[in-house]
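## Example record

The block below lists the input lines for one assembly entry, exactly as stored, with component labels intact.
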Amino acid sequence: DAKTTQPPSMDCAEGRAANLPCNHSTISGNEYVYWYRQIHSQGPQYIIHGLKNNETNEMASLIITEDRKSSTLILPHATLRDTAVYYCIVRVSGTSYDKVIFGPGTSLSVIP
Amino acid sequence: KAGVTQTPRYLIKTRGQQVTLSCSPISGHRSVSWYQQTPGQGLQFLFEYFSETQRNKGNFPGRFSGRQFSNSRSEMNVSTLELGDSALYLCASRLGTGGYEQYFGPGTRLTVT
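Predicted structure tokens for the full assembly:
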């Protein structure tokens, strides 16, 4: 199974961009990178996903390096409500159906 | 469109008892996955159901079981509860297996005393 490595915690000033890195050096060619976040005591929330091209939606941007061994989630203007644990996940494609394996994630604190 | 719902939201059980948790996926979603979340172990995959069949299973003992009904609703059961089973149990649904994003419910907080 491909695994991801994320820093355990990060701080970001309110209004600034939050850049959350993720390493996935053993990713396979057909595996996607997904990002979720979990605000305290709530269920995880899907943010964005990508294969090899950069992606952007209303919540965030995802930058994937050309060799696909790492990626960065960018929250362009962090607010206090973005304080959460952010999970970077690589989809593990089995012989039939996918398993979704969560690592420990990065705890992002947005500071006023 | 209504989100994923889980019942009950909170539950207190005694060691040795059994418990059944329920999950209703988003309308049209056919895949339901279950996760256990504890402070020490984080989010751990329990199992995934699609079309009433278990498609994937995590590394949990046989005391943890589940099922899915024809309307895609799912239940998970834990028998012979242990103190270590105290956790937030999360259910997630998606359209089908494969490259679709999951949508999580609010979870059921189980406390075993």
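Chain B is about 0% helix and 55% strand. Chain B has a mean pLDDT of 92.
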